[in-house]
Design brief:
The protein contains 15 helices and 13 strands. It has about 400 residues and is an alpha/beta fold. The longest helix is centred in the last third of the chain and has 21 residues. It binds pyridoxal-5'-phosphate.
């Protein structure tokens, strides 16, 4: 007979979900209230304004979609693409490919800009595609390509889109809260993320933000949005303002407590400090891996700090290493996806999981398992990481060129 389920206690250092902060888990367990309860409506307002802070935007249309990141992706294409529209889609990993499918399922035509897996999106190729397709309505790309660990230049790509009179549609599932992202300063039109990566929250919610210009396009569509559930014109009646909310769907009440708590944690830490923390632990992990003789796949200036793709050493059994890490060390790292399947491991340092204890655990565990497999593996990983930790903490010193706003939301 089935009984209660008690999951094993893992350390999650894969591509997501990442470790959930204990305060977020505690929030999740609070009593459920009605999704139109005045107290809940107050929480929804706070979630919106905290998301505006996380995205660095004043966009009124900023809220979580009640479903995972894939639903955030689908929301953007379903609302912004009409049958017959041309969309330039950048593909440098798995998730660009999914964008293409979304465009085509909305009746649009996707013009693909292909880049090697493990590299950033090439701005020159995008510019050429925009020039060659003056009828394109949108440019879609992934800020943080989780399948490869590559970071693309969102600010420059959005500027290109604007120059060519296109909307930008940005996948920030793995970037929000982990690396610099400034929706208003960079002129992003439509962006979606996920709760389970750098926000240290449980999976199942997709924060989104849409500029007024893009919202206007959605309001003026000539065809209804094909998906009733994801139609932002309808969702906004629920996520709109104050007391005027009307029933659209039953919100995942407890998951929204969890998202609220994770955003409060982010605000308490401060965005810049969260970005700097991810960077610091990445440097320690990368130094440790390199000292052990392992190579990161992505060139340094295009690397994500929160997702480290590392080549699997010659002759090592990929699946067996991951199995032993889980079995003996309770540590999850990710396998390669698509073109990189069997060639890389993906080591996440996302949100609450980006900490010194995890970096050292991962290096010690990998060294142990690789040596037991008979692989060539240097033993200086922990020392190299510790050397990085002895350097001054940039979180105290560094201030980015333009500081984040502590409250970007309208009063
Ligand atoms: N986009 C990117 C870049 C992702 O990494 C993921 C998930 O890993 C998704 C979209 C889809 O998100 P979800 O799995 O939450 O549906």
């Amino acid at each position: 007979m089935a009984g209660s389920f008690y999951p094993p206690q893992r350390t999650l250092m894969g591509p997501g979900p990442s470790d959930v902060h204990p305060r977020v888990l505690a929030a999740l367990a609070r009593p459920t209230i009605g999704h139109l309860d005045p107290a809940f409506v107050g929480l929804m307002d706070e979630v919106k304004s905290l998301l505006q802070y996380a995205f660095q935007t004043r966009n009124a249309l900023t809220m979580p979609v009640s479903a995972p990141g894939s639903a955030g992706m689908e929301t953007m294409f379903a609302n912004l693409v009409e049958p017959g529209d041309t969309v330039i889609v950048c593909e440098n990993g798995v998730f660009g490919g999914r964008m293409r499918e979304n465009v085509e399922r909305c009746g649009g035509q996707a013009i693909m800009v292909q880049d090697d897996w493990g590299r950033a999106v090439d701005l020159n190729k995008v510019e050429t595609a925009l020039k060659d397709n003056p009828d394109a309505v949108a440019l879609a790309f992934v800020h943080a390509e989780t399948s490869t660990g590559a970071r693309s230049d969102t600010e420059a790509l959005c500027a290109l889109a604007r120059e060519h009179d296109c909307f930008s549609i940005v996948d920030a599932v793995t970037s929000l809260g982990g690396i610099e992202l400034r929706v208003d300063d960079w002129g992003v039109d439509a962006i979606y993320s996920g709760s389970q990566k750098c926000l240290s929250c449980v999976p199942g919610l997709s924060p989104i933000s849409v500029s007024e210009k893009a919202a206007e396009r959605i309001r003026k569509r000539s065809t209804p949005v094909q998906s009733w559930f994801l139609d932002l014109n309808l969702v906004m009646n629920y996520w709109g303002t104050g007391e005027q909310r009307s029933y659209h769907h039953t919100a995942p009440v407890n998951s929204l407590y969890a998202l609220h708590e994770s955003l409060v944690l982010l605000k308490e830490e401060g965005l810049e400090r969260a970005w700097a923390r991810h960077e610091r632990h990445h440097r320690a992990l990368a130094a440790g891996l390199e000292a052990m003789g392992m190579q990161l796949v992505v060139p340094q200036d295009e690397r994500l700090v929160q997702l480290n793709a590392v080549s699997i050493p010659e002759g090592v059994d990929d699946a067996e290493v991951r199995r032993l890490l889980l079995l003996d060390w309770n540590l999850e790292i990710g396998a390669g996806l698509g073109a990189l399947a069997g060639k890389v491991w993906r080591i996440g340092l996302m949100g609450h999981a980006a900490n010194k204890k995890n970096v050292l655990l991962c290096l010690a565990a990998l060294q142990d398992v690789l040596q037991r497999q008979g692989a060539q593996c240097g033993s200086g990983g922990l020392e190299a990481a510790e050397a990085v930790y002895r350097q001054p903490d940039r979180r105290q010193a560094a201030r980015p060129a333009s500081p984040v706003s502590s409250c970007v939301c309208p009063p």
